[in-house]
């Protein structure tokens, strides 16, 4: 399943480096090459990415990924959702850290 986190990361990386290879993308995302291929195809299928070959490339398997106008809008929305998710995770972790500190302080002061 293509999560918002992967959508965000893929669209961000592709926008930064349109000629990124699937292998480089897989490594950057920490996922398999097969999953990367699946994700890119899914994004292209819904019209968020346009995929084109480098016609003059010696490597005929080289592709360029370009965000479509819809992809750019979607990236903005996904970025906002991703930010909200990360802020929520941060707040939860900050709360847990504070609880742990309180426990340690209580044990030290006993």
Short characterization:
The protein is mostly helical. The protein is built from 4 helices and 2 strands.
Walk me through this protein's architecture.
By secondary structure, this protein is mainly α. It has one domain: Arc Repressor Mutant, subunit A, CATH 1.10.10. Helix content is about 65%, strand content about 10%. It has four helices and two strands, in the order αααββα. The protein has a two-stranded antiparallel sheet. Helix 1 packs across helix 4. The mean pLDDT is about 85.
Overall mean pLDDT score? 87
CATH class: Mainly Alpha
What is the count of DSSP helices, taking H or I runs of 4+ residues? Answer: 4
Shape: elongated
List keywords for this structure.
two-stranded antiparallel sheet; mainly alpha; 110 residues; elongated; 4 helices
Secondary structure: elements and pairs:
Layout (H helix, E strand, L loop, with lengths): L3 H13 L5 H8 L3 H13 L3 E5 L9 E5 L1 H40 L2
Antiparallel strand pairs: 1-2
Helix pairs in contact: 1-4, 2-3
